[in-house]
Amino acid sequence: MKQKVQLFGRTLSAMVMPNIAAFIAWGFITALFIGDGWIPNEKFAALVGPMSSVLLPLLIAFTGGFNVSGHRGGVLAAITTMGLIVGSDIPMFLGAMIMGPLCGWVMKKFDKAIEGKVKAGFEMLVNNFSLGLIGLAFVLLALQVAAPVVSSLNTVMAAGVNFFVEHSLLPLASILIEPAKVLFLNNAINHGILTPIATQEVAEAGKSLLFLLEANPGPGLGILLAYCFFGKGSAKSSAPGAVIIHFLGGIHEIYFPYILMNPLLLIAAIAGGATGILVETILGAALTGAAAPGSILAILAMTAPGSYVGVIAGVAAAAGVSFALSMVILKVAGKDEDLEAASAQMKEMKAESKGTAASSDNAITGKVNFIVFACDAGMGSSAMGATVLKKKLTAAGITDIKVEHAPVSSIPKDAQIVVTHQSLGERAAASNPSAKLVLITNFLGAPEYDTLVEELKQNR
Questions:
Q1: Distance, CA of 369 to chain centre
Q2: Cβ neighbours of 96 (radius 10 Å)
Q3: Is the separation of the CB atoms in 270 and 174 below 8 Å?
Q4: β-strands 370-375, 417-421: how paired?
Q5: Within 10 Å of residue 208's Cβ, how many Cβ atoms?
Q6: Which end of the chain is more exposed for a tag (fewer CB within 10 A), N or C?
Q7: Which residues, listed in sequence order, are joined to residue 404 by a DSSP beta bridge?
């Protein structure tokens, strides 16, 4: 079930994350040039509406279709989404996230049905006209049928969010958000759900608190600081480095293993997140665009004018509450928090899953040329892990092995070794069954890095 939820969340976030730079650019334009912005400019502010109502939904839809069936799927999704855009007076983010994968699936099925049946020399003609005619049918259906339906769904979702905001219940969202983050659903929640809704709010009000619900680094910062002072073993020694990567680098995945070592810390994360949201709500804190990654630097860059006190206070309050509860939990638990021990324990648990343990224990055979570090989105922790692994390989005198990072659901088929987090092992095995899996729990100081380097040296 967790794997299915992760896959669904990955589908959502995979449509938004590749286009997050466009959201950031739009957020800066909004913050700078609207009437209440830093430097109001009516001409430049005219970009805000078209970008939110046309550009961003089209990018999301194209990416969703492209992810399923390549460029043709993306084009069909973009054509279809224009029907939603014209048929509605609100930004069609929800519609784009529905139509993207759906159109990609339709295009994939059609291309498979005509495969091998087109006479030589007519391929381009059939490809262009089939896509054009299907696009014509779909855009008209979207305009007449889908747009009203999606608008109704969007209204229901907006009403739900407004209910929580108006009744000061938004802090309760942390009960779902914080545990989901530890299951590596952080990107799915933030970019797959919250960012589209928040972007619509910005189009109407110029700012949104929803950008801060998942991105607030306070809960994770409090937990890591507690480990710095009250942890034991390698957990304590690695926590200071994790603080820098989490708070300044914005890679929140770095603190998830620290919670997995002591699940009671979820209480601290939830309480910290709820406190941060409450303080931000009271002080009217909000951002003008998505803070990606969730670094305090990115958050401050996207902070709406007049919201700096609220944003900083929300982060500080979340960190303070999380730290205080984590301190108590670590003292009462009395465990020897050791990342190596936790890694070994999780390996034993994963051994019960068919295929995963077998793949991770395979000996290296043949010359290794390509290693991939995979995480959920392929941008945050995997990029950091790949950098760490490259340095260790270079220090060992191994410079001819390519090391890249990628989403766990899109691992290159020619990758011979895949390094990923324990909780993503099953998905990695399904994505590339032939690769050797190296499963870790600590992105910074995983002992598996040194073991892998030693195996590669012996292999040579």
A1: 28
A2: 29
A3: yes
A4: parallel
A5: 26
A6: N
A7: 372
Query: What pLDDT, on a 0 to 100 scale, did the predictor assign at position 1?
Result: 59
What SS3 state is found at 398? coil
Res. 163: pLDDT tops 60? yes
**pLDDT, mean of residues 246-275:** 87
* Residues 15, 417 contacting (CB under 8 angstroms): no
State yes or no: pLDDT of 359 exceeds 50: no
**Best CA proximity match to 374, nearest among 423, 305, 324:** 423
Q: Name which residue leads in pLDDT, 231 or 360.
A: 231
Find out whether the peptide bond into 293 is cis, omega within 30 degrees of 0: yes
Give the lowest-confidence range in 132-136, 323-327, 409-413: 409-413
- Joined together, the tokens standing for residue 32 give 């700078």
Q: What is the dihedral of CA 413, 418, 424, 427, to 10 degrees?
A: 20
112 contacts: CB under 8 Å, gap ≥ 6: none
Q: How many residues does the chain have?
A: 460
pLDDT digits (tens, 9 = 90+) for 170-191: 888 888 888 878 766 666 677 7
**Region 80-99 average pLDDT:** 88
In the chain, the amino acid numbered 92 is M
E strand residue ranges, 265-413: 370-375, 402-407
**Active site residue ranges:** 375
Cα–Cα dist 250/248, whole Å: 6
What gap in Å lies between CA 310 and CA 303, rounded to an integer? 10
